[in-house]
Amino acid sequence: MEMQSKPGPNGTPGTFPSPSPGFARPSLPSSADRILGIIVRGIAVVLILVATILMGAAKQSKTVVTSTDDYTNTVYTDTVTIKSTYFIAANALSFFFSTVSFALTIINRSSFANLPLLYIIDQVTVVLLFTSNGAAAAITMALKKGNDEFGWAKICSLAGKFCSEVTAAIVLSMFAALAYVLLLLLSIIALHKRS
């Protein structure tokens, strides 16, 4: 770094380092960073879509025979579904945000880190995904283990297919949330490189 003579405070002579050429202009992320961001966003969009559809379609019918006394048998069919409205709504909203951010990333040729709107979308998406996954996981644990205090039966012992579909939806949505955490880290790294 070379030194330049510039006036100091109050007009006194001073010596200040001149900025290097790389420091004067922020560098743009490489095309590999941009492609990685696009791929991770695309994967997240697909994961969120599949998780939302899987949770919305998860149900299982089971025929149950109960006996009230020695002479009477009651046969009924019950359909097990989960009313995980928050999971479905949060993932649908995350899918919308993900699709918008995916389109913005493709349209913006310089970098996914250059759009402040993407930071906000990514952060909101991470919050929505993690909170909906936590709520759905808590409900799933209650379905698997039951709760004697409240009289909740262990549903998953009767409806294994249903519980497997719900668990798969939560896992896919969690992978999408982790993809968004990776995108936020990539954005932070890109910002750090620019400064």
Summarize the structure.
By secondary structure, this protein is of the alpha+beta class.
Structural account:
The protein has 195 residues and is of the alpha+beta class. The chain has one domain. The protein has 5 helices and 4 strands, in the order ββααββααα. The chain starts with a strand and ends with a helix.
Keywords:
two-stranded antiparallel sheet; 61% helix; alpha+beta; two-stranded antiparallel ribbon; 195 residues
SSE layout and pairings?
Blueprint: E1 3-7, E2 13-17, H1 21-24, H2 31-57, E3 59-67, E4 73-81, H3 85-107, H4 116-145, H5 160-194
Helix pairs in contact: 2-3, 2-5, 3-4, 4-5
Pfam family, one: CASP_dom
Membrane topology: Multi-pass membrane protein
Region (Disordered): 1-25
Order of helices and strands: EEHHEEHHH
Whole-number total of structural domains? 1
Low-confidence stretches: 22-28
- Termini separation: 18 Å
Secondary-structure class: alpha+beta
Mean pLDDT: 78
Q: Give the strand tally.
A: 4
User: Nearest-angstrom radius of gyration?
Assistant: 27 Å
Number of helices: 5
Q: What would you call the quaternary organization?
A: single chain
Report the major sheet.
2 strands, antiparallel
**Strand-residue proportion:** 5-15%
Helix coverage percent: 55-70%
Principal-axis shape? elongated
How is the largest sheet built, in terms of strand order? 1-2
